[in-house]
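May I ask for a protein sequence together with how it folds?
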Amino acid sequence: MINKKILGLSGVILAIAVAVALFFLLDNKVATVNGEKISKTDLNEALLSQYGATALDTLITDKIVLQEMKKEKVKISDDEIADEMVNYMDAYGGEDEFKEVIKDSGVEISTIEQNIMIYLGTKKLIEPRIDIKEEDIQSYFDENKASFAQAEEIEASHILLEDEDTAKEVLKKLKDDGDFAKLAKEYSTDTATNEKGGELGFFSKGEMAEEFEKTAFDMEIDEISDPVKTDYGYHIIKVTNKKEAAEAKLDDVKEEIKDTLLESKLETEYTVWLNEKFEEYEIKTFLKD
């Protein structure tokens, strides 16, 4: 399947396996157990038996893709690789988490970039074979219309206090023209938002504590609430924006649906395309059983 996560995983497995093998091949003796040696030959055989066929399949497939890219004059720019790298980082929870995984695995960034280049090249080779029809888009929209609808949302900030007395003190400062963001930084016990002036961003119903939500959705823009008690403490809420609920419109989500259908069809078409190439190319393997 042409799945970037699968392609990424296979590339990482291959890189780690090769790195381990090369590291241990520096010395004929790779380990001892009660003085009995485990040799590099033992290790090589174990790696080949467990990963050899899979790793070779990956290398053969990558070679086919690269030759096809050259034949069809398919180019992948540095900007395209950088954009896709951001998606990889997001999948791992952000840039810092991604770098930590890379550091721990010992895989070079250049290996990931090469893997991304092959993935994007494969997409460009296969996409011309896929035709997304208008009726396909309409059908998908009709079946998933509810998921595209805009739920009612509000944007708000809050100051979280441990006790009611402190909450009343802060509220008084706000009524005396105190700056909400500054007071959030000074007083709020919510460490995830206090440095951002208490900003919570947009949210819909069902995402916040019931008492918090009931108050916030009844407020007007720029209105500041009295202290609201939840299990977390006492909140002072300020609503900063609203989005009304709206029914989904096909024109607004057409490109999103097209991309979704394209990704789905790529999964299937990749298998067909690759089987064709395996038939077309002269491939010889020399791994011993």
